């Protein structure tokens, strides 16, 4: 038959990063391109124990259809953890379990975004958010992400417009792709502006637990609770394949987002919610995270040292946590072209251009230090240094 | 802050059925209202074995991020089963694993439906489809569902319009809510019209395996493969909480739907895909389904007999499979009002009105026979008979 597509999908093309990741899968390639957690930390044995325990109980409803909002004890666990970590008093009623936090972005697009609405996003920004929200066809407005957070002057200029955005998207801790974080002062300044201008922030926080330097800072959701949807995820701290994320929402959003969730897929897998909850009861999550943090922190230092050694003069961010680090190459280097050379030298990264909604910045690149050990990182950055010298 | 919503969600309200199901959860109530599979058939032990096996293997990627399209061996299993059951030659490349088949409806709405597009749906129709597709604001056009399938005269009238629908939604086997099926002749007639008028059908088939009378009929997807997306699900035959459904798509749809899936939630839970696949390797699915069929078939007969005995003169459908049966009450009975009386007599059903896109038919009701044993069904229908006599 004659194909047809909705207008919102007529021009959509496969993600560039998908293609890059395919190329980078060649086993000869040292890849800093992926965004995958290190599988050495996946708790296979503990999850096997938890699975068996959940399945031995035939009256816990673990295999039946389940509540759209999520498994109540897991929502309670998340609420308790916010109190323990940040002194935030939140009700589990305001927490919805999503199919990974990616789904939260889709639900928020569904419920909140009209075609053509202005939507502010930090730049460079998380590609998954750009993809999920693009489906609802907002007009993205980039605000530069600086070393200490959002560029407040740029933000103020946008918010001074009469028809300014009602929504703002940002990753406040160890951002993907840059590794940058919002300082306490920047969080406070952003919170003030959200309240003053009646703007809702999607505060995405998949990496916040993975801090290996400095101190935990309060989410903006603590500073302006009615103006923030805070997203969280177990993917980076326990297990990605379970697809368990959540959103902490202000009261006014709960009902419509729950309806959107029901329309989208009824509910998130109830079995793995119970398995994860059982795992969290029987194991010390903080100890587990500490092990991940220690290794990622060491690997980050190895990457920084290798960059200083093999890529002299190249600027890069110094993340205090998370999985990514951001290179700023000399102005005249196009990272897309650099990628083609690099892949021949068996090293891969992600060129930065797709992370911009104003796609004229070509000399940046994202590197992940999460998936490779220190010796591999050194060798990979050595290759990268050779490639950069070649191109210069 | 001042709440705001996208236009598509401004008027959305919680589903009526959700409210009904809450009332029906009182343990004194015999509920025929739910649509839940009978949990007695959930294979707890076998899934525990499969989970342990999957988790013992540390190199199968079961806990890592996974492919958007789904676990390749599971897609192959589904393709093989289509060949075995219907002689359909399908490629696993055309199968995408979804988070329950509900998600397939959302993905198809995203990729295909513009606001105001005509979209034909059988009437009464599956509420979950109406909810999922409503998000994309089509103009629903009802076509009556008769005892042998879609009303072809009504369908032809709609397809004769110059700006006719490009999409048609239907459940061809043991439909939710009526239990009705499309005959072979009706399937052929629908297939012809899809091809002639360049229409895409969403053929939803969650219950097809649960046939306890008559012979399996080929899906319309076999008769017009380029014009049909066939949806399937493991929820009714193995386990609902895993949220594992799939869509079999024509080539022209695969790429955009895969992108929509990636934007929506990256991928379906990879762990449970491997667990289910391991279960399917080690157990005989046909034997398992045979046990479910036998019991549901007996329960359906019990309900039919009880209806004849306690509700004389009330018309009802005679499903050859599935979980539901449909009552047509006397013209002047409003099933919504009947529900209020019934709940006081401790019996529950779902009034039929929400299943219509033309909501002026008030005297119908959906009953599920899947969840109650024969004695409970007899007692529940006895109560229902009393309630109907009261109201008449």
Automatic annotation (TrEMBL), chains A, B:
The keyword Transferase applies. GO terms for molecular function: pyridoxal phosphate binding; transaminase activity. Its cofactor is pyridoxal 5'-phosphate. This is Aspartate aminotransferase. Gene3D superfamilies: Aspartate Aminotransferase, domain 1, Type I PLP-dependent aspartate aminotransferase-like (Major domain). It comes from Oceanisphaera profunda. Belongs to the class-I pyridoxal-phosphate-dependent aminotransferase family. Residues 50-384 form the Aminotransferase class I/classII large domain. Homodimer. The keyword Transferase applies. InterPro entries: Aminotransferase_I/II_large, Class-I_PLP-dep_aminotransf, PyrdxlP-dep_Trfase, PyrdxlP-dep_Trfase_major, PyrdxlP-dep_Trfase_small. Keywords: Aminotransferase, Pyridoxal phosphate, Transferase. Pfam families: Aminotran_1_2. One of its GO terms (biological process) is alpha-amino acid metabolic process.
């Amino acid at each position: 038959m004659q194909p047809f597509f909705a207008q919102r999908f007529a021009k959509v093309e496969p993600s560039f990063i998908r293609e890059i990741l395919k190329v980078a899968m060649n086993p000869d390639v040292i890849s800093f391109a992926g965004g995958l957690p290190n599988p050495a930390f996946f708790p296979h044995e503990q999850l096997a124990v938890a699975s068996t325990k959940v399945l031995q109980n035939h009256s816990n409803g673990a295999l039946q259809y389940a509540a759209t909002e999520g498994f109540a004890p897991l929502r309670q666990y998340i609420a308790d953890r916010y109190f323990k970590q940040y002194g935030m008093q939140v009700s589990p009623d305001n927490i919805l379990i999503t199919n990974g936090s990616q789904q939260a972005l889709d639900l928020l697009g569904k419920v909140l975004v009209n075609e053509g609405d202005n939507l502010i996003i930090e730049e460079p920004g998380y590609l998954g958010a750009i993809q999920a929200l693009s489906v609802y066809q907002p007009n993205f407005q980039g605000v530069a992400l600086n070393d200490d957070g959002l560029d407040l002057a740029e933000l103020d200029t946008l918010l001074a417009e009469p028809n300014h955005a009602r929504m703002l998207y940002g990753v406040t801790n160890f951002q993907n792709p840059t590794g940058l974080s919002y300082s306490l002062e920047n969080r406070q300044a952003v919170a003030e502006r959200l309240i003053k201008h009646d703007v809702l922030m999607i505060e995405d926080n998949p990496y916040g637990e993975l801090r290996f330097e400095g101190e935990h800072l309060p989410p903006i959701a603590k500073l302006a609770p009615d103006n923030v949807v805070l997203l969280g995820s177990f993917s980076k701290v326990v297990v990605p394949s379970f697809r368990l994320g959540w959103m902490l929402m202000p009261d006014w959003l709960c009902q419509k987002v729950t309806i959107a969730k029901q329309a989208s897929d009824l509910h998130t897998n109830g079995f793995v919610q119970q398995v994860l909850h059982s795992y969290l009861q029987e194991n010390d999550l903080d100890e587990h995270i500490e092990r991940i943090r220690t290794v990622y922190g060491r690997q980050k230092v190895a990457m920084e040292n290798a960059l200083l050694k093999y890529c002299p003069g190249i600027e890069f961010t110094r993340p205090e946590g998370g999985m990514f680090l951001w290179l700023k190459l000399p102005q005249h280097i196009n990272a897309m072209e650099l990628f083609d050379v690099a892949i021949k030298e068996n090293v891969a990264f992600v060129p930065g251009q797709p992370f911009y909604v104003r796609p004229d910045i070509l000399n940046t690149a994202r590197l992940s230090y999460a998936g490779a050990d220190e010796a591999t990182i050194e060798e990979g950055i050595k290759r990268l240094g050779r490639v950069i010298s070649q191109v210069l």
